[in-house]
């Protein structure tokens, strides 16, 4: 299992949602830094393309269970990290 990619994607998801929450809370939605940090920095930090290649490699090697687990872990953990960031920003 490619846990390094999973960890980077989860941290990146948490950071991106936290950033957007901070921007919304401080009414900085017109800030040019929003796209720079959100898409540029965090987009480069997260590794969706690596996740795709690693999942396809697992499929090519007929490691079906690991491929499915990788998909569900990445999507599920990233959504959970985003939700957690939202909840932490509330309180």
**Unreliable spans:** none
* Derived structural class: mainly alpha
- Number of helices in the DSSP assignment: 4
Level of helix content? over 70%
Could you report the average pLDDT, rounded to the nearest whole number? 87
Distance between the termini: 35 Å
Please count the beta strands (DSSP E, at least 2 residues each). Answer: 0
Basic shape = elongated
Strand content: under 5%
- Rg from Cα: 15 Å
The largest sheet is: none
State the domain count.
1
List SSEs in N-to-C order: HHHH
Describe the structure.
The protein is mainly α. It has one domain. The chain has 4 helices and no strands. It is elongated. The mean pLDDT is 87.
Task: Give a nutshell description of this structure.
By secondary structure, this protein is mostly helical. The relative contact order is 0.21. It has helices at 3-25, 33-45, 48-60, 64-90.
Short descriptors:
91 residues, mainly alpha, 4 helices, 0% strand
List strands and helices in order, with pairings.
Blueprint: H1 3-25, H2 33-45, H3 48-60, H4 64-90
Helix pairs in contact: 1-2, 1-4, 3-4
